[in-house]
UniProtKB/TrEMBL annotation:
Lineage of origin: Bacteria, Bacillati, Bacillota, Bacilli, Bacillales
Subcellular location: Cytoplasm
HAMAP family reported in the protein's UniProt record: P5C_reductase
Any Gene Ontology CC annotation: cytoplasm
Pathway: Amino-acid biosynthesis; L-proline biosynthesis; L-proline from L-glutamate 5-semialdehyde: step 1/1
Name of the coding gene: proC
Protein name according to UniProt: Pyrroline-5-carboxylate reductase
Length: 267
């Protein structure tokens, strides 16, 4: 299987790392290209043994999959520059936030297109990835797509219309968790812990809780920590008084709305 990564930033690197580490692809089956940063491509070649797409872009002709991994504003230029080199059998796998299958097909015609929304935990094989595909994607190609994506974490197949919600929850989600960790660390320091101890305790608390979440119901886990009239109840009461769930709901709603707006902006 041959893959060309068009866009060679952090998301493309996370995926390349997963594919090679899990032996889904050999380094020589992967080629990378970007807008103009040659040094970045040389780095990826040295680090992972992947190929660099050459001037004539012949690598595109033999590609089974084309990973699109650039910012939404760059999709039009990127697709316009490669469309004449694509074979009719290649699947375009886009991880670009917001930009629809229909918009991608506007530039490349009726090629099979899949849209995935991974997150940066792909780097350690723990992405939560949502994926949707067009009707031109064959059953075999769907199978290959699941394989490619499961090498970087868990995969959930959704309708394309649900990808804005997937983006708001899973694509952006790690940043909310990091923000919460920052806030807990600052609060720990304000309550008398040293910065080093605060960070160590927060890291381990998040890590342990994330592991526990894999095995039990979320609300049940919370209830087990919360003694009647105890410390956790006092802490949660402060969250409830400040409408924590309402804040999280707004956060996800705004992120999903932004994903939709990006789609409209670049359609
Ligand atoms: N970073 C994240 O957490 C996630 C990002 N995404 C999506 O992945 C996409 C890429 O994000 P990052 O890797 O973080 O961005 P990045 O800024 O690290 O990389 C973007 C890459 O696109 C290349 N590029 C720009 N214009 C190009 C063109 N005309 N032709 C070829 N390559 C071109 C750049 O040279 C660069 O290599 C974005 O659309 C983003 O919405 C999706 C899920 C999570
Ligand atoms: O913030 C963004 O637009 C991208 C999409 C999901 C995560 N990062």
């Amino acid at each position: 299987m041959n893959i060309v990564c068009v866009g060679a930033g952090s998301m493309a690197e996370s995926m390349v790392h997963g594919w090679i580490q899990k032996k889904i692809l050999k380094p020589e089956e992967i080629a990378v290209t970007n807008k103009s940063d040659k040094e970045r491509l040389e780095f990826l070649k040295d680090e992972y043994g992947v190929k660099i797409v050459q001037e004539e872009k012949n690598e595109l002709k033999n590609a089974d999959f084309i990973l699109l991994a650039m910012k939404p504003k760059d999709v039009e230029a990127a697709l316009t520059s490669i469309k004449d080199k694509l074979s009719g059998d290649a699947v375009i796998l886009s991880v670009v936030a917001g930009v629809s299958i229909q918009t991608i097909q506007k530039y490349v015609g009726n090629l099979p297109v899949a849209r995935a929304m991974p997150n940066t935990s792909a780097k350690i094989g723990k992405s939560a990835t949502g994926v949707a595909w067009s009707r031109y994607v064959s059953t075999n190609q769907q199978h290959d797509l699941r394989n490619l994506l499961s090498s970087i974490g868990g995969v959930t197949v959704v309708e394309e219309s649900q990808l804005d919600a997937v983006t708001a929850v899973a694509g952006s989600g790690p940043a909310y968790i990091y923000y919460f960790a920052e806030a807990m660390t600052e609060a720990a320091i304000q309550n008398g812990l040293s910065p080093g101890d605060a960070k160590k305790l927060v890291r381990q608390t998040f890590s342990g809780a994330a592991d526990m979440l894999q095995h039990e119901d979320f609300a049940e886990l919370r209830k087990k920590v919360t003694s009647p009239n105890g410390t956790t109840a006092a802490g949660i009461a402060a969250l409830e008084k400040n409408d924590f769930k309402g804040i999280v709901s707004q956060c996800v709603e705004q992120a999903a709305a932004r994903s939709q707006a990006l789609g409209r902006e670049f359609e």
